[in-house]
Specification:
Helix content is 33%, strand content 22%. By secondary structure, it is α/β, with parallel strands linked by helices. The termini are far apart. It binds glutamic acid.
Length: 278
């Protein structure tokens, strides 16, 4: 074949087909996926039991299982998902920029956030709590005043502490909860505060067994929603239908047992779609 004689149109078609193959991961079998080749989903990467990037590069957690189920209902198989880390402070911007199609990352539905993003759900009700050393005498939120407290920038947990629970605590805000754990272990931090679901996951990690305890306080209601770009009502509606189906066919219960069982986390029952507990 004389390459020079290939027409411009044929060359363009060749380029197009190469591009399509590259995007499709080379299997060329994306028919019926209904939504293109890949879907980008925002999760946490450092929260055991919720959203965790494992050492082997795989992903685990309740949010991962919920997102995988939702993606399937939107027409994407698990191997078409690209997981993107969306830290607490980055979530609204990631959606506004279109970095991800949706976010399932322990993302509480709040009025403030609803100004910037839309939410499907809720799909879990958690509560803010404290994680302290096993021998700590911190039992109440008021014990935190004057103490070193760690939480995450852009979270409701940090905001609630400043506003309500312990305005005189010495609050250190970091990028992710895993960063607080090191401080708690070394003693640089007296307590870590966020949702009980997240804290239970950390406390159950093999290397921390017996070292930490949850205070068992229900300091707030955290209604986990799936964040989508503001105005994308079609996706919100599809995700709500998927979440309803997940509860009905018991896949929700299985995800709870698989992910919260090892942490012995006593979760609330599945919320009804649209029922945000204040
Ligand atoms: N659910 C709370 C929030 O959305 C705390 C957990 C988190 O930072 O993801 O802010």
């Amino acid at each position: 074949m004389k390459l020079r004689k290939v027409s411009a149109a044929a060359a363009a078609a060749l380029v197009l087909s190469i591009t399509a193959t590259a995007c499709g991961g080379g299997d060329g079998d994306n028919e019926g996926s209904g939504g293109g080749d890949k879907i980008k989903i925002g999760i946490k990467f450092d929260q055991p039991g919720l959203g965790l990037k494992e050492p082997d590069g795989s992903f685990s957690g309740f949010d991962v299982d919920v997102a995988t189920y939702v993606a399937k209902e939107l027409g994407y198989n698990a191997d078409q998902i690209e997981w993107v880390e969306t830290k607490s402070a980055d979530r609204e911007n990631a959606l506004a920029r279109g970095d991800v199609k949706f976010i399932a990352a322990t993302y509480s539905i709040t009025d403030e956030r609803k100004q910037k993003v839309d939410f499907a759900g809720p799909y879990l009700l958690a509560h803010q709590d404290l994680l302290v050393k096993a021998d700590s005498d911190i039992t109440e939120a008021t014990d935190l005043n004057g103490k070193n407290l760690c939480s995450v920038t852009g979270s409701t947990s940090a905001q609630n502490v400043k506003k309500d629970f312990a305005p005189k605590a010495n609050l250190k805000q970091v990028g992710g909860y895993s960063e607080c754990i090191a401080g708690l272990q070394s003693g640089a931090v007296d307590a870590l505060t966020t949702d009980d679901s997240i804290l239970a996951g950390f406390a159950a990690q093999e290397q921390y067994k017996g070292k930490f305890k949850l205070a068992g306080l229900k300091l707030s209601n955290e209604n986990y929603g799936i964040g989508v770009k503001k105005g994308d009502t079609e996706t919100v509606n599809k995700i709500n239908a998927a979440l309803e189906k997940m509860v009905q066919d018991k896949a929700w219960d299985k995800a709870v047992t698989d992910n919260f069982g090892p942490a012995n986390y006593k979760n609330e029952p599945a919320p009804k779609i649209g029922n945000v507990v204040s």
